[in-house]
What does this fold into?
Amino acid sequence: MNYQSILFSADKGVATITLNRPDKLNSFTDDMHGELRDAFKTIAKDETIRCVLITGAGRGFCAGQDLSHLASEDARAEQDLGETLDKNYNRLIRTIRSLPKPVVCAVNGVAAGAGANLALACDIVLAARSASFIQAFCKIGLIPDAGGTWTLPRLVGSARALALAMLGDKISAEQAHDWGMIWKAFDDETLMPEAQGMALHLATQPTQALALIKRAFNASTSNTLDQQLDLERDLQTIAGRTSDYHEGVDAFLNKRPAEFSGK
Ligand code: T3D
It folds into this structure.
């Protein structure tokens, strides 16, 4: 597929997706969603890809849904937003959360609406100090989507999540970090080297174990402790049968760096 709205590359085990509509702050269109689906299909199929890095081109990360086609009342009335969510955002968020590979997000600028919640759906979120997060939905009469009503309260607690969702206030990368919404904030010029370094590191790690960690954490949000202990038992059984477990233990015992194959 020839991409117009994203850039896609794969190198040294890392697939990099750059949202690429900078003049519109990389806001989502149907075409961009289609291209993202196609890129994630490649990522899922290609065993040599062991980590994904998502970022945005230009001064923004992503301003959520592209609203420019909604100038007329007819256009607004004709659309069924539930259908849009089913067709585009829900698929994207489910794909990221269930992908058995780590997904790192480098938020290079403003992340608004579904753009903010795309970032928060990723496994490890880094941001430039000049970046910001806005649950912009309430400003146009909508509710947070792209998983925001699920992700936000879990990350920052319901008091902060509700205020963010109802006020639509912009919060800085520093604030997002202080609240535990993201992993780290970096000076703008160091964001991409840091994010790329982290993605390259993750691509050399025991990919199956990382996928099982992700599965366990996904399930923990609705499991009881008993259910989670059983799940840990089952997933650890799988992890203990991977080549990377054998390699990790052997490397430790022989005081050498491990060389994980991802198998
Ligand atoms: O609708 C559905 O299908 C349901 C799904 C909804 C999911 C959602 O994401 S709803 C939320 C949609 N997003 C927003 O409401 C955010 C709209 N954008 C903004 O509030 C501001 O642009 C920002 C706070 C993000 C950034 O502000 P600022 O001052 O840094 O930039 P700007 O000047 O507003 O934007 C720069 C350009 O990007 C500008 O274009 P122009 O005038 O230079 O030609 C602006 O129109 C364009 N832009 C920004 N956001 C969007 C957009 N164009 C289309 N859609 C956008 N969402």
